[in-house]
Amino acid sequence: MQKPFLAADAACPVDRANDDIGEAMRLTLFRAQVVVREAEQRAYDLFLQNLVKGTSHLSLGQEAIAAGFASAMKPGDLSFCTYRGHAHTLARGVPVEKVLGELMQRDNGLMRGKGGSMHLTSAEHGVMGSYAIIGAHLPIACGAALRAQYKGEDDVTVCFFGDGTTNIGAFHEALNFAAIWKLPVVFVCENNLYMEYTPIGEVTAVKHPAADRASAYGLERIVIDGNDADVVYRAARAAYARARAGEGPALIECLTYRHSGHSRADPAKYRPDGELEAWKKHDPVMLYRARLKQFGVPEETIAGIEADVRRIVDEATEKCKAAPPPPAEILCTDVFADGGFAWRN
């Protein structure tokens, strides 16, 4: 059984003079994690009420990755997500109402209810799509990074994927292409130990499916605690700086754990006894709440953030429940392009 990283001791003394993150950013990181946690939990509740149709893939337990990478981004940076993309979409600033509305197939949703859980996209916020085909978005992310390089622009592309993607051909092709061209792209493996229902360790020749393969492409081996937002933020910040400086891609493996099954149809009975409980002791939101108190943030400030986020989620939920489904006249819009001259130009 893969054990989580040991949680930081909240009682340890703090050297404020050497703090490279600061209170303002820590509050941003905490708020982002709470938004994801509360919105994802609400999505779960709405699914049980039959208000979310189809399946959905939650990031409960993985919030620090979305918060850390998004908080280190600049406007104009691009995110490419998997079908488990709610967290990254929210962390880039998309309103909770837009996300829940899309999950509930309402006209106030991000794509007016036509995309659903696995296809969240908001170019306005730099979220360039959630991709349900495993590994499909890695080459696309390379294309986005190549565009920035070709035009001399300084935006960075960040591509998130699960541990199972590392055994897909597109993973290796994209890494090789990005390394050869020194593209400004950061590949982020969210290793939650399971590729759907199968433990990744049972079907992979190396212990760390992403990091242990980095050397094949001339990249640094990077494995981090994906449940500690400070660790994630620092790793992201360093990778972005290298990419903007023309030093090429990075591959970062974040060890984390999903608290629920692969999807809402999965009771996760395949996990060994005690594994979930062990990882919940390293819950990212709980860990970071303690971190804030360690740095002297008052309890009322922390509780105020939590209460404000709950209010936002509650209000968004009611607005989505009251919103109509998308009108029939948009059924055939935004679904087809013929590829001809007019479309390309």
Global Rg: 20 Å
**What is the number of domains?**
1
* pLDDT < 50 stretches: 7-12
CATH topology: Rossmann fold
Specify the helix fraction band: 40-55%
User: Which CATH top level class fits?
Assistant: Alpha Beta
Globally, the shape reads globular
Count the beta strands.
8
Descriptive account of the structure:
There is one protein chain. Helices cover 40% and strands 11% of the residues. The protein is an alpha/beta fold. The chain is built from eleven helices and eight strands. A six-stranded parallel β-sheet has the order 2-1-3-4-8-7, sandwiched between helices. Strands 5-6 form a two-stranded antiparallel sheet. A hairpin with a 2-residue loop joins β5 (194-195) and β6 (198-199). α5 (137-151) runs parallel beside α6. The longest helix is centred in the first third of the chain and has 26 residues, at 23-48. The chain has helices at residues 23-48, 63-71, 86-91, 96-103, 137-151, 169-181, 229-244, 275-280, 284-294, 299-322, 341-344, and strands at 78-82, 127-131, 157-162, 185-191, 194-195, 198-199, 222-225, 250-255. The protein starts with 22 loop residues before the first helix and ends with a helix. It has a single domain (21-323), classed as Thiamin diphosphate (ThDP)-binding fold, Pyr/PP domains (Rossmann fold), CATH 3.40.50.970.
Briefly, what is this?
The chain has helices at 23-48, 63-71, 86-91, 96-103, 137-151, 169-181, 229-244, 275-280, 284-294, 299-322, 341-344, and strands spanning 78-82, 127-131, 157-162, 185-191, 194-195, 198-199, 222-225, 250-255.
